[in-house]
Amino acid sequence: MTERRTFIRPLATRSIVVDVAWAVFAAFVFLLPIDLELEHASPIAVLAAAGAIALRRVSPSAAMTMVVVLGIVQVGGGERPSLVDLAMFVVIGTAAVVGTRTEVIASGLLAFVAGIGATVYLALTGFRFLVLLNGPRDQAFLAMAAPVTALLGVWAGGVAVRAFRSRDRESERRADAEAAASRAEAVATEAEATATRAIDVAESERIRADIARDVHDVVGHSLAVIIAQADSVPFLDDEARIREVSATIASTARSSLVEVRQVLGHIDGSGSETDPGSLDEIVQGIRDAGVDVDHAVRGAPVTLGPDSGTAARRVLQEMLTNALRHGAPGMPVTVRETWRSADVVLEVENVVGDGRTAGSGRGVEGMQSRLSALGGSFDAAVLDDVFAARARIPFDVHGGTNR
Fold it and tell me: Which residues are in the DUF7134 domain (predicted)?
């Protein structure tokens, strides 16, 4: 992590108050009349030292500059050491703990240079502590090394504290990162669960829509045939023909019931893939209802897969149901099957008249939706009182039966 290289460090109000309190306390200490051959510091020196202590965390660079200037003034003025010199130790130690990398290095150099300078200065001023310089050589060496050792010791201690704090901060960052990762994982899990629920709801809605569409196609077609047959009964005089129509009505009703059960059986997976009726059977059912159907087949029919086979049958049922419901009575219905290399095209045409509509609503929308899902298409239009519907059904995996 890159350290902030700013001259002034932002601190909380509480930290600033604490630092100022320490500076005031240090000022009182510096003014104490302690007899260690130490001179009483001047008020300016006390203020400078206290100011350096107050700024030691806000701006270590400024604090070090102040103690260096204070030391130079003392040496230049020939002043003897005083308690204000302790500010040097406080500032160096603090800079080693909280300063930037540059300030840490600068505080180490300051400790070394100030230590050497203090040794020389104390020796030249005849400070009592350094009378050891005139004693045995080993003791003289210890006396010379004392200031340097003390200042470097404070600096090294500050560096050690800095390292411990850095390790603790790294541990905290790692813990925070792990906590954030855990929270993100929890959020992702919840989002996944929500998405799964949404998918399940959407799938349920799709299944219900498919069931409603299939039931509409099956029941609508069957009822159209049944109604057409039932309407013709009052006009029949031949008893055999009446029995034939009644049998057709019963057969159509039973077939519709079987298909509805198959559709509903797919909800829990218990339904089979029994062929609900071939295209020829659907056309024949309309013929049995008394409609004249012109049925033409072009190309070579092939075996359709389950999806395309079901779609072809349902769409043809719906197109013929519309023709039966909305077509002009007594007019023929044209059905054309065109089998191509990758799809089959079903076309139904019937005359509309007497204020009848061409058919609309759920049936047309259902056909468009069903074929769109398979990559097919459905179009319908009225031209010169002729309603023409065209459905293109692409082939899928073989396995269904169409004929």
Answer: 12-163
